[in-house]
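Complex 222.
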Amino acid sequence: MAKDKLRRFAEFLNFPNCFDYPKHLKGKWKQEYFKNNNPIVLELACGKGEYTVALAAAFPEKNFIGIDIKSNRMWVGARMALAAKQENAAFARLIIEKLEEHFEKGEVSEIWITFPDPFPKDRHEKHRLTHPRFLKVYQEVLPANGLINFKTDDDGLFNYTEELFKQLGIAPIQVVRDVHGTEEADAYVRDISTHYEKLFRGRGRTIKFMKFLLPAQLPEVK
Ligand SMILES: C[S@@+](CC[C@H](N)C(=O)[O-])C[C@H]1O[C@@H](n2cnc3c(N)ncnc32)[C@H](O)[C@@H]1O
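Predicted structure with S-adenosylmethionine bound:
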């Protein structure tokens, strides 16, 4: 298993659609990598990158980049994108906290956050990907009122996010509490399933989705 992981690490570094801490591409992703002026969409905590690959196929007029710290997971999506000859999909190994070292302000048009670790303990709140600390990171790369899509199985994380957004004055554009049990969600929210999504649905969890615009300024919360 460890050997397989090491092989994937090595291959990831050599794949033409994969990057390891690509600080040199900051502000230059469209010009130097995608070679077009299409909007860039990030999938954060992408794991195997199911959203990156599926959205890249569905929306050829946009560029997609899966972001994760584990390259052996992204290797799966990167291989699929290469096999499908997707020129609008890429993967970058980097720490989400350091997004602004890899993207210019406004270089990213939209963000997906797919099944992030929920960090249920109060003392770990600041690690949740919807915590104000992370919202500030996203503000550094999005334009004002940039679009964020958030999908999770975790009730605690979803409720926390809703409560926080009330305090911050963020009114989500769409909240879907049962993605697969209703017709409320768009097809690409319903029909694309990630590895963790399948795992948690198999355990009877209900999948939740929220879409919101991130304002340029946020009030301080206690
Ligand atoms: C629960 S998994 C979800 C993976 C995938 N989105 C899915 O639904 O199958 C969470 C992912 O977040 C990644 N991750 C956690 N913290 C991170 C960070 N600070 N920066 C980059 N990736 C992170 C982990 O490596 C892991 O792949």
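Residues 149 and 211 are 5 Å apart (CA to CA).
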